[in-house]
Amino acid sequence: MPDKVLIYSRLPRSMTQRFAAHFDLLDAVGKPVEEMFAADELAQVRALITAGGTPLRAADMDKLPALKAIICYGTGYDGVDLKAAAARNIVVGNSPGANASSVGDVAMMLLLATMRRLPVVDPYVRSGDWAAAKPSPLMKPPMGLAGRKVGIYGMGEIGRKIAARVAAFEAEVGYFSRTRYDDLPYRYLPSLDALAEWCSVFVIAVRAGTDTNHVVNADLLAKLGADGYVINISRGSVIDEPALVAALKSHAIAGAGLDVYETEPHAPSELTKLPNVVLTPHIGGNTQESHVAMQACVLANLTAFFAGEKLPYEVRCTS
Amino acid sequence: MPDKVLIYSRLPRSMTQRFAAHFDLLDAVGKPVEEMFAADELAQVRALITAGGTPLRAADMDKLPALKAIICYGTGYDGVDLKAAAARNIVVGNSPGANASSVGDVAMMLLLATMRRLPVVDPYVRSGDWAAAKPSPLMKPPMGLAGRKVGIYGMGEIGRKIAARVAAFEAEVGYFSRTRYDDLPYRYLPSLDALAEWCSVFVIAVRAGTDTNHVVNADLLAKLGADGYVINISRGSVIDEPALVAALKSHAIAGAGLDVYETEPHAPSELTKLPNVVLTPHIGGNTQESHVAMQACVLANLTAFFAGEKLPYEVRCTS
């Protein structure tokens, strides 16, 4: 009999069907598990698949008394209480790097589309306003990317993908992360504030956690200045969203490109009305190739777990 | 008394004001010159500034009997009849390379935004459809750029900027141009057809002329296939627009990102209704930095011309 695996987050069937060939899937379709399944069924669940951003706290774990493996679909695991998992001898796995290129591409798309104001210029063509010689939304040409100082917050696998891309656009790359990497050809700034002072384009690629919560706040945004841009492909929690909206409205910064939001799938309505933002629905890792790669990590983690082996992609609790 | 210079194309005042400090500008604001100025005034015009795509044929030149210099604002000079100019001893100048980085950036923006379907996903967030859990426009994940074969048609200064950028996205780069460059690390394909057979993402960066007119036609588009994309930042004349619209409608190719059109500023209405295109209003070179660089070329050309010297940025008639 195949092992039971709970699908804890709301994940499209197309993303989980590959696992059905190997496991007996209990799909909670993102609803509370106790509403979807009987207690005796939940008591048999030893492993679950979750999206890393979905909250999974001590009390949630305690609804699954046999749970011993939390496997995150994707790079993130910020929703998982790692201490609570460790205290219950639950191992946590993720899919590191599998989506890094794909997320790096979306970061660059957001950066370029925000600086070149794609959300207003594409409609200018489609509406016929261009043909009718109506005033262009780009009366003042934007700045180009060549020669710009682009600061990357976080230099993990995704940060590196973004840095390599940005450098090809002839921009200067600087970064701040907990670790300074002497093998990287980019300028290291010793603090988040120093990075914000140095750059005008600020890209968030840091792993989210309690230590990064709302660190991109009004003070930091003010440092970027009126020609500043914020790009976020990490997690919404890193940004103080009301402070960002205020900075965009007052033109304290020039624009923002966001793939992630504090409370997904809800983007604040004040944000969605702004012309100087580009908004995407958390599509960073959403390519065919990165799904295949992420699924391979999930499958490898689950297979190892049920074989009683160490997870090949294990998340360690460091605090 | 300052020399008279005719502004032949419709160019925003912000783009020409730098020249007013040096020359007496006659601005035709894009209208027929004989309607705007008296014949004796036009008879004094020895130099004009034009956008390279604006038609400037023998008959147009003959309205300006003293004309001896045509200075193009930008890289292109496809609107200028070089033979007619040569026959009249009129020198032609342009602004080579000044906008290459800026155009390269827009090519990448169009490529990424088309593949990731930005024109449908940004409205999905803004409309509240994402928050309401309505079906995503990306039910089928798109392909990523890493590992994709990207073919570049034309390997001048702009083609090289695009190639360098594409390579940083971990895609394979191939190209076809009249010249094979052995110093470039990209795959050379011996013909346009071979390039289209090889690649799935096709980027047009060729200098437009009579030899490139409508070469991107139904046959070539069919070679790209159902996962194929066309990006054009060169000139609209290179594409057979009705064939492109048909290929996009029938899903013979997946999408197109266009900054240029056959009859600007008119984008065909059949094109502007399509969801699988990204359309920008010829903004490739429209950054602060590239305007400054293009204006420097224009000014250097005009100054040399009126000093009786050779143009520093001269276009040679090769046929």
Strand tally of chain A:
13
Helix segment count of chain A?
13
The greatest inter-chain interface is formed by:
A-B, 58 and 58 residues
Widest beta sheet: strand line-up of chain A: 8-7-6-9-10-11-12
Please report which band the strand proportion of chain A falls in: under 5%, 5-15%, 15-25%, 25-35%, 35-45% or over 45%: 15-25%
Query: Could you list the spans of chain A in which at least 5 consecutive residues all have pLDDT below 50?
Result: none
Describe the biggest sheet of chain A?
Answer: 7 strands, parallel
Helix content of chain A: 25-40%
Taken in chain order, the helices and strands of chain A follow as EHEHHEHEHEHHEHEEHEHEHEHEHE
Radius of gyration of chain A, Cα only, in angstroms? 21 Å
Query: Which whole number gives the mean pLDDT of chain A?
Result: 95
Note the overall shape of chain A: globular
CATH topology name of the largest domain in chain A, in short, is Rossmann fold
For the termini of chain A, the CA-CA separation is 38 Å
Helix and strand composition category of chain A: alpha/beta
- Total number of distinct structural domains of chain A: 2
CATH-level-4 superfamily name of the largest domain in chain A? NAD(P)-binding Rossmann-like Domain
Do you know the CATH architecture of the largest domain in chain A? 3-Layer(aba) Sandwich
Oligomer: homodimer
The CATH class of the largest domain in chain A:
Alpha Beta
